[in-house]
Amino acid sequence: MPETPSKSEHIPLLKQLLTKHRWAALATLDRHGYPEGAMVALVMDEGLSEGYLHLSQLASHTRNLLERPQVALTISEADRGEGDPQQLARLSLQGEVRRLAPEDASYPTARARYLATLPDAEMRFGFGDFQLFAFRWHSARLVGGFGRAYSFRPQDLEKGAGGEVKPL
After folding, report:
1. pTM
2. Contact 27, 95 (CB under 8 A)
3. Which of 77, 93, 128, 163 could hold 12 in an S-S bridge, CB 3.0 to 4.6 Å?
4. CA distances (Å), 133 to each of 31, 37, 41, 54, in order?
5. pLDDT-based confidence at residue 145 (cuts at 50, 70, 90)
6. Which of 59, 67, 68 is nearest to 39 (CA)?
């Protein structure tokens, strides 16, 4: 039986999911406490501890997170329609969002980072209903395939900084 990789050996996979995927499922709670999911664009900061979301206030998920900033984001390896989907790598992040106002000191850097990754989003920065949000995660659950699940905190990325990233 092959040896199961350790938690630290999965840090490169965690980093890859955070850096190579721009599309994530956002989970919020509505005013009645019911969950709501939405697909959103996500751009991570350089340290991978914070991500940026650019969302319309017309969307119910944005109104939800303005009322309850505790959210979850899920990122998954692409399903190519072959093999067992339970073997796909996936990452669930739990954390909180905060609105970044244009006058906030971190806004210019966050906006520039977002647009460097998603340049077609620039026109939406001119729309009055779109707001930039920072998502700071405090815990993550990485499933690297069947039977390979690990919990992480942001500081785990600092401890296991290196590692080869293999293509998904």
Report:
1. 0.90
2. no
3. 163
4. 20, 17, 11, 6
5. confident
6. 59
Is residue 120 packed enough to be buried (19+ CB in 10 Å), middle (13-18) or exposed (0-12)?
exposed
Identity of the residue numbered 140:
A
Q: What is the DSSP letter of 85?
A: G
Consecutive H or E run containing 63? helix 60-67
Average pLDDT, the chain: 92
Q: Quick check: 39 and 69 in contact, CB under 8 A?
A: no
- For 112-120, the CB contacts below 8 A with 24+ separation are 113/43, 113/45, 113/46, 113/52, 114/43, 114/52, 114/54, 117/22, 117/43, 118/22, 118/41, 118/43, 118/54
CA 155 to chain CA centroid, nearest Å: 16
Q: Give the residues across from 92 on adjacent strands.
A: 74, 141
Mean pLDDT of 57-83: 96
Structure tokens of 82?
A: 């072959």
